[in-house]
Each structure stands twice: as structure tokens, then as C-alpha cells.
Design brief:
about 325 residues, alpha/beta, 5-stranded mixed sheet, 13 helices, about 20% strand
Length: about 325
């Protein structure tokens, strides 16, 4: 009997989300649609540009969002991360507990410094551009791992953003080996074009000799494969994982498994904010497969959840929203 459906490791970040114009992005020198790592001086500079702007603050971090999505749907998740002994760290830890996540933070001493944060800037076309100050999560290492929890999980999920952190990557890979030795399924995400362009070696190490589940969007897949030919993309990605989930925005998603290709339609929605959509998709998909549902059923649920988060501002849905989606999923299964 497994204790957890998902064990995730990733960067603990508190998101502050701002609505901005393309001109503001240009003025601030922020690369649109990309995640860029920044230091504290650059963070202060960006904040000065946004002085007076209203920000929505939420718990974030890619793997954290995925674990929360799975938990809100009724799954059991463990999340390894690192925060500092400050107000943001307390906020982040309390948010995990409130969302039913078991975490190493309740047993590990908090670090000095500042908790990581991510400034998410959303333009009117719903695209998100992220400036990330890693702070304490830059020191994430193997001490955050819980070997017993990894071994007693169905799936071990490695956030692709850890490819940018030497200690975080080492921790993810150490956990990967623990999971593999215990027969736990492996999952990861390509995360962002910047990770592919600048941290490809780390992503290659995470994927290793293959994973069970790989998540990416179409733009990331094009950059990874060096082509826009969807047939070639499917062929190349299929060599990396037993199951590949390739999300394509309003076109829905493709689920690739061997020679099989499943197409699942997207939820029809006016896009307001793409922040967290991929994380939500992964969390809902992995929830469904760990509950014994087919990949086609899992993709339907994941598209519903991701579509709903895109149709609002913010990277997560409320428990009530997720409950509604779960009820629709029940009706879909009975149809």
C-alpha cells in the first residue's frame, strides 16, 4: 500500500502576479513568455518600476503547484523544498499545510536569507513572463529528501527548473535513483524555453535513460526538438518517456505512448492568464492515472483543470473550483 500518490521536488517560490502592458515589459527589459533568474538588486529594480501596482500573492513554484492540484482533487502528495525563516517562508509553509501537502518543512530547520519569490507579469494576451529570485531555494539539496516517502509513492516528480541549480539538480537526481530502485514511476517537465536553451544538460540528466511521464507545451517541444514538424516532435519526444503529454493551448493536448496517439480537446475558454496552466495539467493528469483512470480520461480532466486556470488570473484554483471540476469528471466517466 503506497502512502503517497505523488512525491514532488522543486523550487519553493511565493508568486506575486502583476497585470502589465507589453510596453511596460519592454521598459523593464523583461523577456516576454520566458522565465529569467534574477538577483536581489534586479528584483528591487523591477519592484521600483511596479511601484503602486496591485499584486496577487500566492504560493507558487512549478512542482508545488502540481502537488497542490493533485491534493485538491483528492490525491496524496509529499513535497520537498526549501524556504527561509522569514514571513514569506511562513506563508509558503502554511499554504502547503492548508492544501493538504505533507512536506519536509515540518521536520527540517529553516534557512537564513530570503524565501524565493517569482514576479509574474501577465500581459493582455494572457502570456506570462517570470522574473525569479531563487533566494533560499538556491540551496535546496539532498537533505530535503525523505527516502521513505519517495519509496512509498506511486510517482516521483522532478521539476525541470531544478536543472538551473547544481545542488537542486543533485538532489533531484539522488531522489530519482531512490525512486528507481524502489520501482517508483518517474515524471518530469521541460518547464520553460529558457531551461532548454541554457540548462539542457541538467534536463538531460533528469530524463536520464527515460522517464515514465514527460510534460511539455508545444513551444517547449519545438525548441527541444529543433523543429516545428509535429510528426518529428512526436517521434523525438516518444524516445524520452513511456508517456508524453504535449499541450497545445486551444488545440488541446496530445498523449503519446509508443505508437499510440491520443488527442484530447481543450476546454473552450477566453484566456486571461497562462501562469500555472502546465503545472495544473500535470497535477490533474497524475491524479487521474494514480486513481486508475486511462490516459484519455486523465487528459480530459487535465484539460478541464488547465483551461479553467487559464480563464482566471492566478496560478491556482480554489478548492470549490476543483471540487466542481471533479464532479464534472465523475459525470464524464459515467457518460
Amino acid at each position: 500500500m503506497k502512502t503517497y500518490d505523488l512525491y514532488a521536488i522543486g523550487n519553493a517560490l511565493v508568486d506575486s502576479e502583476y497585470e502589465v502592458t507589453d510596453l511596460q515589459l519592454q521598459t523593464m527589459g523583461v523577456d516576454k513568455r520566458h522565465m529569467t533568474l534574477i538577483d536581489s538588486a534586479r528584483r528591487s529594480e523591477l519592484l521600483s518600476h511596479l511601484n503602486g501596482a496591485t499584486a496577487r500573492r500566492t504560493g507558487g513554484g512549478s512542482a508545488g503547484n502540481t502537488a497542490v492540484a493533485l491534493s485538491q482533487l483528492g490525491g496524496r502528495a509529499f513535497y520537498s523544498c526549501r524556504v527561509a525563516d522569514d514571513e514569506l517562508g511562513a506563508f509558503y509553509a502554511q499554504d502547503l499545510v492548508a492544501n493538504g501537502i505533507t512536506t519536509n518543512l515540518s521536520h527540517a530547520p529553516l534557512t537564513t536569507g530570503q524565501t524565493g519569490s517569482c514576479m509574474v507579469m501577465v500581459t493582455p494576451d494572457a502570456e506570462r513572463s517570470m522574473s525569479t529570485f531563487l533566494g533560499a531555494t538556491a540551496d535546496l539539496d539532498h537533505t530535503a529528501l525523505n527516502e521513505e516517502a519517495i519509496a512509498s509513492s506511486h510517482i516521483y516528480y522532478m521539476e525541470g527548473y531544478l536543472a538551473a541549480s547544481p545542488s537542486g539538480l543533485h538532489a533531484a537526481l539522488q531522489g530519482r535513483q531512490i525512486a528507481k530502485d524502489a520501482g517508483v514511476a518517474l515524471a518530469t517537465t521541460l518547464s520553460d524555453m529558457s531551461m532548454i536553451n541554457f540548462c539542457r544538460a541538467g534536463l538531460d540528466a533528469i530524463i536520464g535513460d527515460g522517464v515514465d511521464y514527460l510534460f511539455c507545451n508545444e513551444e517547449e517541444a519545438q525548441v527541444w526538438c529543433g523543429t516545428q514538424d509535429i510528426a518529428l516532435i512526436c517521434q523525438q519526444l516518444g524516445q524520452l518517456a513511456q508517456t508524453v503529454c504535449l499541450t497545445r493551448g486551444p488545440l488541446g493536448c496530445l498523449v503519446l505512448e509508443g505508437n499510440q496517439k491520443i488527442t484530447a480537446p481543450a476546454l473552450s475558454v477566453k484566456a486571461l492568464d497562462t501562469n500555472g496552466a502546465g503545472d495544473m495539467f500535470a497535477g490533474a493528469f497524475l491524479y487521474a492515472v494514480t486513481q486508475g483512470h486511462s490516459h484519455a480520461q486523465a487528459a480530459w480532466l487535465a484539460n478541464q483543470a488547465a483551461g479553467q486556470v487559464v480563464g482566471q488570473y492566478g496560478n491556482r484554483l480554489t478548492p470549490a473550483d476543483m471540487g466542481s471540476i471533479k464532479n464534472r469528471f465523475g459525470s464524464y466517466l459515467q457518460a
